[in-house]
C-alpha cells in the first residue's frame, strides 16, 4: 500500500505542529521519520493512522483519500514505545486479540487463530513464550510481541512510534537489525518514528528529516548523510564541527586573514562577502604537528589549535581541541577530531600540543538572507 501525504498542516492552538508536510511513501517501503523531540513526528504518524485529523491537507492510501475513513477501516498496525500489551492476558492471547475482535462474519475459527498466533510468534522468534504474561518478559521481548500482535490482523501499513525507545543500547541495536530482516521478509509499508539518527540510517530505506513541523530533507540514508540539504540536517546527523567565517566569490575564509584557512566553495561562486558556516565531521579533520614558520608574514593554511584532551580507547583517538584564534570556531567552542589511535601514537601527540587542523571535506552554508 502506498501512502501519499499531501500538504498536511496541524495546529494546536497557536502552535504549528505540522506545516505543509508532503511526502510519498512507496508500497513496501520502510521509511524513518527522524527529528528532535517536538518536531511533529508523532503528530504526523497519528494523522496517518486516523487517530488525529489534519487541519489542512490529505492522506491517500493507494491513491484513495482517507479523510473520511475511521481508524478501524484503515487497516493499520501500531507499535508504540511503551508496550501496550494487555497485562492480564498471556502472550498468546495478546497476539490473538485482534483476530478474536474481528466481526463474527470474518472472524477466523479458534483453530485457525491458534495456527496464526504460533506462526507469528515463530516469526518474532518467541514461540516458547506463548504462555507467559507481559510482566514475565524482558523489554525487548515485549516489543517483539507487540509487533507480532500488530501483524496479526495483516495490516497494510505498519506504524512504529519509537518502538525501541525505552530499551538499552545493546537490545535496541539487536532489535533494529531484526526489524530490518523482518521487513525484508514481509514488505509491509512501514513508517518508523525515531529521534536516533543511527537507528534511522541503519534501518530505513529512506529517511525523512523533520524540524519544527517541516520536512527538511528526504533521501536514502547515504544521500542524507553524504549531502545534507541544510545546516540543521548536517548538525543532526552525527557529530560535526562548526566554523565561522566569510564567503566571497567561491572561497570561504575561516579565522583571520594571515592565520586562517581558505576553503574552495565553487557552489557559492556568486556570493559577495557574506557570513558563512563550514561544517566538518570530526573524522574529516586532518591533524598535524604545528611548526611555527620563521616568517611571521607567511600565511598558515589550516586552523592552529591546542590539544586539550585525548581519549584513546579502541581503534580511534577522540581529540578535543581549542582554536588559537577564537574567531575560527564559535566562541568557547571545542573542536573535535577523530583520528586512528595508531596514528596518534605514531605521531607521539600529547595533551597540550599545538597542532594544525585541515579539513579533508567541508560543507559550506552561506547565512540565510545573505549572498545568492
Ligand atoms: N494534543 C496536543 N495538544 C497540544 N499540543 C500538542 C498536542 N500533541 C502534540 N502537541 C505539541 O506538538 C508538538 C509536536 O509533538 P509530537 O508529539 O508530534 O512531537 P515528536 O516529534 O513526536 O516529539 P517526541 O520525539 O518528543 O515524541 C510538540 O510541541 C507537542 O507539545
SSE layout:
Blueprint: E1 3-12, E2 15-25, E3 30-34, H1 41-49, E4 56-61, E5 64-65, E6 76-80, H2 91-100, H3 110-123, H4 139-152, E7 157-161, H5 169-186, E8 189-194, H6 197-203, E9 206-211, E10 214-219, H7 221-226, H8 231-236, E11 241-248, E12 251-254, E13 261-264, E14 274-280, E15 285-289, E16 303-313, E17 316-323, E18 335-340, H9 341-347, E19 354-359, E20 363-366
Parallel strand pairs: 3-8, 3-9, 6-7, 7-8
Antiparallel strand pairs: 1-2, 1-4, 4-5, 9-10, 11-12, 11-14, 12-13, 14-20, 15-19, 16-17, 16-19, 17-18
Helix pairs in contact: 2-3, 2-4, 3-4
Adenosine-5'-triphosphate (ATP) binds next to strand 2 and helix 1.
Task: Please list the strands of the largest sheet in the order they lie side by side.
Answer: 6-7-8-3-9-10
- The third-level CATH topology of the largest domain is Rossmann fold
Count of helical segments?
Answer: 9
Strand content: 25-35%
Structural class: alpha+beta
The sequence of SSEs as H and E is EEEHEEEHHHEHEHEEHHEEEEEEEEHEE
The CATH class of the largest domain: Alpha Beta
Principal-axes shape call = elongated
Taking the alpha carbons of the first and last residues, their distance comes to 42 Å
Estimated radius of gyration: 26 Å
Q: Which small-molecule species are bound to the chains here?
A: adenosine-5'-triphosphate
Output the CATH homologous superfamily of the largest domain. P-loop containing nucleotide triphosphate hydrolases
- Sheet of most strands: 6 strands, mixed
- By DSSP, the count of extended strands is 20
State the helicity in percent bands. 10-25%
Give the tally of structural domains.
Answer: 2
- The CATH architecture assignment of the largest domain turns out to be 3-Layer(aba) Sandwich
Poorly predicted residue ranges? none
Instruction: Give the overall average pLDDT.
Output: 88
Amino acid at each position: 500500500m502506498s501512502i501519499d501525504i499531501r500538504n498536511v498542516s496541524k495546529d494546536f492552538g497557536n502552535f504549528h505542529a505540522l506545516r505543509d508536510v508532503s511526502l510519498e511513501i512507496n508500497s513496501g517501503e520502510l521509511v524513518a521519520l527522524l527529528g528532535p523531540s517536538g518536531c511533529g513526528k508523532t503528530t504526523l504518524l497519528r494523522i496517518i493512522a486516523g487517530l488525529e485529523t489534519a487541519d489542512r491537507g490529505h492522506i491517500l492510501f493507494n491513491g484513495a483519500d482517507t479523510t473520511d475513513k475511521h481508524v478501524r477501516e484503515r487497516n493499520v498496525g501500531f507499535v508504540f514505545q511503551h508496550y501496550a500489551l494487555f497485562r492480564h492476558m498471556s502472550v498468546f492471547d495478546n497476539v490473538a486479540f485482534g483476530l478474536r475482535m474481528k466481526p463474527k462474519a470474518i472472524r477466523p475459527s479458534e483453530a485457525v487463530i491458534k495456527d496464526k498466533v504460533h506462526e507469528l510468534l515463530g516469526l518474532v522468534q518467541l514461540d516458547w513464550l506463548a504462555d507467559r504474561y507481559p510482566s514475565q518478559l524482558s523489554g525487548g521481548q515485549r516489543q517483539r510481541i507487540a509487533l507480532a500482535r500488530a501483524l496479526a490482523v495483516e495490516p497494510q501499513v505498519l506504524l512504529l512510534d519509537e518502538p525501541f525507545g525505552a530499551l538499552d543500547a545493546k537490545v535496541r541495536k539487536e532489535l533494529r537489525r531484526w526489524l530490518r530482516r523482518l521487513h525484508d521478509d514481509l514488505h509491509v509499508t512501514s513508517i518508523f518514528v525515531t529521534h536516533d539518527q543511527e537507528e534511522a540510517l541503519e534501518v530505513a530505506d529512506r529517511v525523512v528529516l523533520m524540524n519544527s513541523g517541516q520536512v527538511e530533507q528526504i533521501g536514502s540514508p547515504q544521500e542524507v548523510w553524504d549531502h545534507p540539504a541544510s545546516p540543521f540536517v548536517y548538525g543532526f546527523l552525527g557529530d560535526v564541527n562548526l566554523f565561522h567565517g566569510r564567503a566571497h566569490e567561491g572561497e570561504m575564509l575561516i579565522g583571520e586573514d594571515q592565520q586562517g584557512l581558505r576553503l574552495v566553495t565553487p557552489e557559492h561562486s556568486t556570493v559577495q562577502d557574506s557570513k558563512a558556516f563550514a561544517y566538518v565531521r570530526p573524522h574529516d579533520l586532518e591533524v598535524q604537528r604545528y611548526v611555527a614558520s620563521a616568517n611571521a608574514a607567511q600565511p598558515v593554511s589550516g586552523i592552529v589549535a591546542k590539544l586539550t584532551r585525548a581519549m584513546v580507547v579502541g581503534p580511534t583517538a577522540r581529540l578535543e581541541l581549542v582554536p588559537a584564534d577564537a574567531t575560527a570556531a564559535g566562541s568557547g567552542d571545542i573542536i573535535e577530531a577523530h583520528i586512528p589511535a595508531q596514528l596518534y601514537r605514531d605521531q607521539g601527540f600529547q595533551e597540550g600540543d599545538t597542532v594544525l587542523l585541515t579539513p579533508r571535506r567541508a560543507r559550506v552554508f552561506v547565512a540565510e538572507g545573505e549572498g545568492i
